[in-house]
Amino acid sequence: MEEIVKAIEGCVVMINGKYRFLRHQTNKRDTCSRDQAIMCLIALKRFGDSSYYKSIVKNLDFRISKKFVWQDSYLWAKERYLLWRILSCYHFIGWFLEPSYSIHLFCWMVWSSNKKMKLTKWYLLKFIVSKENYLLRALLRDAFNDQETIAISELKPNIDFRWQRATPWKEGRELTEEEAAYNTLDIDVLNRIIELNKTAK
């Protein structure tokens, strides 16, 4: 984990006294997008040095890169969660028009905020997130019954990161035994979030 955090830190750069983000340490093109920057901050908040993370938040540029800006997510990044949810209400009003990968990212943002956000979580679970999307439910700290716990334990790795899909049970295909020896990311991430949720209680 330490090596991963160090690699992520290498994608955060100071430009004119403000922090921006790179897609990769060796990729100097100034085109990092919102999803990459958000997941970067989540990883650093959870597993990185807290003082370094606070420094990034304090000196964060409204621009993620030359190509992209934070938009409403800037308030989330600055940890002004109430204002962020108010300005992000379009996620709920037009949820049926929202791309599934955007809902996936939004759930990560809710999880990392470490706030109760009961109404937000209730709405997402009741009207937006499918019962079979176990990762999004875990990110919203939903409880799994015994049958669902068994189903999770029996999941096979998928060729696609299924949790970004509106219908994760329909997407992609199961990996072969040979493929699964090198890639179980969808299962690993789900199990890790479930584990972290238990220790957070």
Question: What features would you describe in this structure?
Answer:
The protein is mostly helical and 201 residues long. It folds into 2 domains: 1-80, no CATH class; 89-201, no CATH class. The protein has 12 helices and 2 strands, in the order H-E-E-H-H-H-H-H-H-H-H-H-H-H. The chain has helices spanning 2-9, 34-47, 50-58, 73-77, 81-87, 90-93, 100-113, 118-128, 134-139, 146-153, 177-180, 185-200, and strands at residues 12-15, 18-21. Strand 1 and strand 2 form a beta hairpin. The mean pLDDT is 89.
Layout of strands and helices, then pairs:
Blueprint (H helix, E strand, L loop, with lengths): L1 H8 L2 E4 L2 E4 L12 H14 L2 H9 L14 H5 L3 H7 L2 H4 L6 H14 L4 H11 L5 H6 L6 H8 L23 H4 L4 H16 L1
Antiparallel strand pairs: 1-2
Question: What keywords describe this structure?
Answer:
two-stranded antiparallel sheet; 2 domains; mainly alpha; 201 residues; globular
Question: Short description, anyone?
Answer:
The chain has 201 residues and is mainly alpha-helical.
